[in-house]
Amino acid sequence: MPIINRIADFHDDMTAWRQDIHAHPELGLQEHRTSALVQDLLRGFGVDDVVTGIAQTGVVGVIRGRTDTGRAIGLRADMDALPITEETGLPYASQTPGLMHACGHDGHTTMLLGAARYLAETRNFDGTVYVIFQPAEENGGGGNLMVQEGLFERFPMQQVFGMHNWPTLPAGTFAWRNGPVMAATGSIEITVTGRGAHGARPNAGIDPILVAAHIVTALQSIVARNMEPTEAGVVTIGHISAGRAENVIPERALMKGTARWFLPEVGDLLEAGVDRIAHGVAAAFGATVEVSFRRSYPATINDEAATTMARTAATTVAGAAHVEHMMRPTMGAEDFSYMLNAKQGSYIMLGGGKGEDDYGVHHPRYNFNDEILPVGASYWVTLAEQLLPRA
C-alpha cells in the first residue's frame, strides 16, 4: 500500500495509541480518558490550538499552514465505544467489563491523530486544518451536539470529511458514493395493554403477546405493500418482553424496534404506518396500544463535488485499482450526517478486511486492523494537502 514514508515511520506509535484506547473503552459523552489522551498527544505534536469541552468531551485541534489563505477544512473522527462484552481474548482487550470498541472508533481516532502529527510537523499546506474528535456517535448524537454548540461558527471551514473502517472490504481499499451513503433512523416503542388472566382460561383475558405477534407480522406490510418498490426502507422489531410465568397471560407487552430510510417522505410513511397498524391490530383484538416513533439520525448524504475531492485523495494513496464505487448505500446510520447537513462534505469507507476470521462491526470478536492505520492517516494528509495546496 503506497503510504507517506514519515507516517510509516511512526506506525508502531499509532498501533500503541490504538491498542491503548481499545483497552480503555468509554461510552458516549463519557470519553474523559480518551479525550485527555487526544489532548495530550495533540499538544505534544505542536498543534497550534487544542480546544476542549465542545459537546462535553469533544476536542478540536487547530493546525495552521504556512500562510493564512482563509481556506479551511475539517477532518472528523469519533471516539466512543459500545456496551458490548468483548470476546477477542487479545492482550489489549477491554479492561472495562461490558464495554468494547466494537466499531473501530479507536482506529478512527488513531488515524486522525497520526495525520495531525504529520501535518503539525510539515505544514506543507496553506490555510487551516481542523481535526475534530467527536464524542457519542453510537447513541448520543455527538455530531449534532457539536454542530449545535457552534462547531462551524467557532471553526469556520469550507468542507468537512469523515471516514469509517469497513471490514468487509479488503484492507487498504477505499469505497466512495455520491448521494445517500448511510440511512436515517428512528426508534420504535409499542406498549400493548390487554387484560391479564390465568393461562388455562385465555377466554377471560386479552392476550397482549398474541396482539404483539400480529403487530410484528403486520408491520412488514408497510415496506412490502405501502412503499414505492424502488425505494428503500426497513422496519424491524428487535425486542419483545412480557410476563414472568409460563401459565399467566400478562397485562402488557413491550415491543422495541428500529426503522431505516433515506428519503424524508419514506420516513413519514414508515412512521404513519407503524402508528396505524399498531392501533388497528390492537383494536381488532380488543387491546390498546401506546406508540412512540422517535426519529434520531438523518440520512448521511455525500456532496458530489466533495466526494470527488475525497476520491482523488484516496486514489493518490491507494491507486485507482483500490478505490471502488459503492453500488448501494448501507442501512447503518451515522451522526456525521448532522455535519453534512450543515456543511459541504463527504464520508468515505476504508477497507480493513484481513481475509479470514473477519467479524463485522458491533460483534464481540471484532478487532480493528492495525495494518490500515498508516493508510487512513495518509489519506487524511493527502486530502488536506490537495485541498489546501501551497501557493
What are its keywords?
391 residues, alpha/beta, Aminopeptidase, Alpha-Beta Plaits, 2 domains, eight-stranded mixed sheet, four-stranded antiparallel sheet, 16 strands, 36% helix, 26% strand, elongated
Helix content: 25-40%
Briefly note the structural class of the backbone: alpha/beta
**Name given to the CATH homologous superfamily of the largest domain:** Zn peptidases
Write the element-wise H/E pattern from the N-terminal end onward. Answer: HHHEEEHEHHEEEEEHEEEHEEHEHEH
How do the helices and strands line up, and which of them pair or pack?
Elements lengths: L4 H5 L1 H13 L8 H14 L3 E6 L3 E7 L7 E7 L26 H18 L5 E7 L7 H7 L2 H4 L4 E12 L3 E3 L2 E4 L1 E10 L3 E2 L9 H19 L6 E9 L6 E2 L2 E10 L2 H22 L2 E8 L4 E3 L1 H15 L4 E3 L10 H7 L1 E10 L19 H15 L4
Parallel strand pairs: 3-4, 3-5, 5-16, 6-15
Antiparallel strand pairs: 1-2, 2-4, 6-16, 7-14, 8-12, 8-13, 9-11, 10-12
Helix pairs in contact: 2-4, 3-4, 4-11, 7-8, 9-11
How would you explain this protein's 3D organization?
This protein has 391 residues and is α/β, with parallel strands linked by helices. The protein folds into two domains: 5-182 and 299-387, 3-Layer(aba) Sandwich (Aminopeptidase), CATH 3.40.630; 184-294, Alpha-Beta Plaits. It is 36% helix and 26% strand. It has helices at residues 5-9, 11-23, 32-45, 105-122, 142-148, 151-154, 208-226, 264-285, 304-318, 336-342, 373-387; strands at 49-54, 58-64, 72-78, 128-134, 159-170, 174-176, 179-182, 184-193, 197-198, 233-241, 248-249, 252-261, 288-295, 300-302, 323-325, 344-353. The longest helix has 22 residues, at 264-285. The two termini are 29 Å apart. 50% of the residues are buried.
